[in-house]
Request: fold
Amino acid sequence: MLKKILGGMAVVILGIVAYAALQSADYQVSREIVVKASPEAVFPYINSSKKSNEWMPWAASDPEMKMTHSGPEEGVGSKSNWESKGKMGTGEAEIVESQPNQSVKTKLTYLKPMEMSQIAEVSLTPSAEGTLVRWSVAGRNDLIGRVVCLFMNMDKMVGGEFEKGLANLKRMVEGSET
Reply:
């Protein structure tokens, strides 16, 4: 009887892993918001790792996190490092591309609890109401990541945090415009 149970469990586990292996490794999550301000007014908030951390939701979601900043105050090379025994783990975010008043790309490198990297981008597009701000992240999942994504909705989880951050950014920028 025990052999049948273990055999059945092995078949289920192998089935899950095989199904995950067939899923696309590539992923992208993005959210948008309109800020009633010009791209020039929004850009300083996305072009500095220190200012970005004022509106991004990560510190609020992990109050135990310790954050440090290095490199230039803004633009390419502006860097944040974080360390937490909580849910944020350990990693760094470094601005790797900056197009004034248009977009900023940041390489995110996670070291703990697991190693991975991805590229995040915040882009600014002028609109009739102000500026359309789009925050996105893209990367590739290894097999373990694809298995995890079968049970967790990454778009909903990460996208929800992006929505909080973009709402914070909107409040900060629009509040400074008055």
User: Anything to note?
Assistant: The first helix runs from residue 2 to 22.
